[in-house]
Amino acid sequence: MISERRCNMRSRKESDVKKVIYYVVFVALLMTAILGPRSATAASCDPEFFNSLGLPNTVFTTATPQVDPIAHCEIIGKINPRTGVDGKPYAIGFHLRLPDSWNERFYFQGGGGTDGSIGDAKGSGALSKGYAVVSTDAGHDNTINFDPNAGGTAAFGIDPQARIDYGYNAVDQVTQTAKTLIRDYYGRKIAYSYLVGCSNGGRQGMVASQRFPTYFDGIVAGAPGFNLPRAAVAEAWNEQALAPLATSLSTNGQPYLVDTFSDADLALAANAILAACDALDGLVDGIVDNYAACKNWQVYPQLEAIQCTGAKTASCLSADQIEALKMIYAGPENSRGKALYTDWQWDPGISGFTSLRLWSLGYPVGAPVNTALNLTLGGGSLPHVFVTPPDVTPLTGLEAYIFGFNFDTDAPKIFKASGIYTESSMEFMTARSTDLRRFKKQDGKMIIYHGNSDGVFSPHDTINWYKAMDERMPGKAQSFVRLFLVPSMGHCGGGPGTTVFDAFTPLVNWVEHGIAPESIVSTAPPGTPWPGRTRPLCPYPKQARYIGSGDINNAANFVCELPHYGHGHDFDFHHCDD
Ligand SMILES: [Ca+2]
User: Fold this and answer.
1) What is the spatial distance between Cα 249 and Cα 370, in angstroms, rounded to a whole number?
2) Set 199, 250, 355, 424: catalytic member
3) Could you tell me the distance, in angstroms and rounded to a whole number, from the CA of residue 87 to the centre of ligand 1?
4) For residue 542, how far is its CA from the centre of ligand 1 (angstroms)?
5) Catalytic position from the list 141, 265, 454, 470
6) Reduced to 3 DSSP states, what percent helix, strand and coil does the chain have, rounded to the nearest 5?
7) Are 357 and 455 in contact (CB under 8 A)?
8) CA distance 206 to 193
């Protein structure tokens, strides 16, 4: 607008007058910003000040000056305190930190799992850089709402409002409240707003981009559980695929899964996948960069090559183990063969802790206790939060619930609404819309990342959504949303790959300086076969490819380019189409 006005100026004199006016207005605004009415002093960091703002249905329990890691005001409060249908108190708790040296930016720190704790509100270092950071329990408190007779920390799913708060309303309420508090505290506008999260926090990011597209300028959505109820069905599928391998019972009298695959067995599977797919990207380096080409027809023969011909030994997998892997990677289906989620990516990260070990198998704790998150976290959330009405189950019955979950009669309950539960979990939990026009229109930018060996959310589900969104937008997804697949990475981190990277700084550069991320450098941490190795992560559908010379442990010798498909096979994944 200013440049248009400049073009229309008729005389030098008028131009000079306007310059003076602009200068005076600019100085006045500057002085207001510096000296003007602002309450940003440590003296106002007390609950009375925040209560005096008169925010409806909001109670402040704490406002305390803090000095660690930098000087700031720490605020803890509750929105909409109320009594749930189970007679227990509920509220949307939040934790806000307002640094004395504020950089005029707002950072929403995404939650994780089924939430229930207010988080540290330090934003993985963002607070130290001057960001005002908020985190939230998403509408329930694990110390209050825990019920051993109703799924433990998943008991909040009995309360319809707590479901909706968890699904999307907490993101809405906490963002609005935090933004108001920040503006009132500093007496200044927020220059940029960000949401950064992984897993359920990544889901919150996608929820924000679709339901509240004007709230954030930039979003990092890691391993987003944007289709979580379907993924929860897949969790049950995996456990039932593994159950026949169990040779003993858990303390709850159910198949004990921890030893159905040893770590050595998972390494055998990883080596079979490497044998099938490592070289497809042009470089044998222990990483499958051309994941698009790594499919069943490549991997099955290599798995069958390591099948035991006699008794199980350390150097072979049993036929039942291989069958279970094929079932898991194909994804859940009902008895009519209809896919209920999606299939998964064959990737050597299968041997990493945050893949099958953490989610489907579990890890040993001494006693025969099933520790797989699919049986504990998923065991609580599937019956209490995702099916409607909730199937109230005591903690000791969660394993039996998952092993008995029926893919014909129980799986459809994630689409059901009934009685006081007016929204199905596929409504209140998901962020599957491909229409991101409003987010794009207000210049929103989003970076999504996803590990190819994620143990709970399939990278194919995220890829399928991205492809559909790109078609809908149409073909303009790259201009505002970029998806980075991370070879060998499990859920939100971990795995034998270059799994350490910073997605937030590239997002800020994109939002504030218009520099779109063409690649993100990642590093292999200690514990991987090549600590210190660096690689570019590439925006889908591009993949990292070696230039043919130079150190293969240096990202500088790789470029991001479109995959070499080869063999005439397309890149469409098997997926559900409800
Ligand atoms: Ca390779």
Assistant:
1) 9
2) 199
3) 56
4) 15
5) 454
6) 40, 15, 45
7) yes
8) 15
Q: Pairing state of beta strands 192-198 and 481-486?
A: unpaired
Predicted TM-score of the model (pTM): 0.91
**Rounded to an integer, what distance in angstroms lies between the CA atom of residue 193 and that of residue 173?**
15
Q: How many angstroms does the Cα of residue 551 sit away from the middle of ligand 1?
A: 14
Ligand 1 mean position, distance from CA 294 (Å): 11
- Maximum distance among all Cα pairs of the chain, rounded to whole angstroms: 97
Is 491 an active-site residue? Answer: yes
> What's the token pair of residue 26?
């600019």
Could you identify the residue written with the tokens 């990202």? 555
Q: Give the Å distance between the CA of 292 and the centre of ligand 1.
A: 12
Residue type, 558: F
**Structure-block tokens of residue 364:** 């040993």
Euclidean distance between CA atoms 394 and 152, whole angstroms? 8
Output the CA 358–ligand 1 centroid distance in Å: 25
Q: Collapsing DSSP states into helix, strand and coil, what is residue 89?
A: strand
Q: For 107-165, write each residue's pLDDT tens digit.
A: 999 999 999 999 999 999 999 999 999 999 999 999 999 999 999 999 999 999 999 99
User: Which one of the listed residues 184, 209, 491, 519 is annotated catalytic?
Assistant: 491
- CA neighbor of 136 nearest in space, from 68, 51, 79, 57: 79
Which tens digit of pLDDT belongs to each residue from 12-27? 444 555 565 555 555 5
Count of CB atoms situated within 10 Å of the CB of 476: 14
Both tokens of 321, joined, read 């183990």
Q: Which burial class, exposed, middle or buried, applies to 21 when counting CB atoms under 10 A from its CB (0-12, 13-18, 19+)?
A: exposed
Position 381: which residue type? Answer: S
